[in-house]
């Protein structure tokens, strides 16, 4: 099995942390340079028509795209140490939090970066006003998260899950937007130090 | 179990079709008027802090938010007639397609509506330029979908899944954006007529 990725991007990191938490290590990683457009070649677009990373390529050539689809594949073939939940309510609550983190934190983070940094300006027209709006959403979600973590060890009670991985990668990626934890967000800081100190965070 | 929803909104419809395909009918539905702000009361925000519908409330008061989290809960307690896949590769491919439809079709559809119609202008500042950009993404995805459906009965080969439900609800919702299938998109039209004729489409 091979994973096509770009090491510094947040979505590939989500997959690497997921695999590290699972103890899965027999994967070959192939690096692409997104700024050089190595993800936009006809060959790569046969693997992912949208030219995104990461992509998991199975030994028979089947390509699985989308971070969470890749994680779900590994959760299925390696169910030990579940990160997507172990009963109906827990699976639903993890799915809910995962989506909250993606829709209200990761996506505005990515769009703030794309629409205010000019990083991909050769292939998109940045809309500054939309990027600024996304920045406000990012800050609001961090406030919400801080409040939630006052009474919860992890995003879903006392169980580390894929939602924590997504939130950690999003928080770290916000360096590109110059957004970081405020001094008064003590619960978010406590959680951040906890999840960052897990060996998987370095994967 | 209760579901809080607004009948004409696309996400509640995704859940109703999912339940109809599963043959689950013992749910009480409670209607909220989003334009009147019935989803923004302190009471409802205790069920969903983001004020979104649908919300599934279990008999013990636990609230499950997010359409796909609600569907996952029902898939878990009622695994017959799986709509989220039945083995590792199928589950991953359905997750991949579901996310493609959500990220590249449903979300731009919703944002085009929000940023160009003025429907929620009492509670957000519409950015016309961003709404117009989203409209382009919607059209591009419909072109991609038409091409894919030339050689596939449903989104994932010959199996109807949650990804078809999401695509159907998104396509129908695009009436609000005055976007519909072009005459030359014959494969998309064939698929649309097929999925629309299932009894669940009327749920």
Written account of the structure:
- The structure is a homodimer of 203-residue chains.
- Chain A folds into two domains: 2-77, Glutaredoxin (3-Layer(aba) Sandwich), CATH 3.40.30.10; 88-202, Glutathione S-transferase Yfyf (Class Pi), Chain A, domain 2 (Up-down Bundle), CATH 1.20.1050.
- Helices cover 51% and strands 7% of the residues of chain A.
- Chain A is built from seven helices and four strands, in the order βαβαββααααα.
- The first copy, chain A, has helices at residues 10-22, 42-47, 67-77, 88-117, 128-148, 162-173, 186-196, and strands at residues 2-5, 28-31, 55-57, 63-65.
- In chain A, strand 1, helix 1 (10-22) and strand 2 (28-31) form a beta-alpha-beta unit.
- In chain A, helix 4 (88-117) packs parallel to helix 6 and helix 5 (128-148) packs across helix 7 (186-196).
- The radius of gyration of chain A is 17 Å and the shape is globular.
- The first copy, chain A, starts with a strand and ends in a 7-residue tail after the last helix.
In short:
The first copy, chain A, is of the alpha+beta class and 203 residues long. The first copy, chain A, has helices at 10-22, 42-47, 67-77, 88-117, 128-148, 162-173, 186-196; strands at residues 2-5, 28-31, 55-57, 63-65.
| Strand element count of chain A | 4
Tally of individual helices of chain A: 7
According to CATH, the fold-level topology of the largest domain in chain A is Glutathione S-transferase Yfyf (Class Pi), Chain A, domain 2
Low-confidence segments of chain A, ≥5 residues, pLDDT <50? none
Instruction: Kindly report the greatest chain-chain contact and the residue count on each side.
Output: A-B, 31 and 31 residues
Helix fraction bin of chain A: 40-55%
- Average pLDDT confidence of chain A is 96
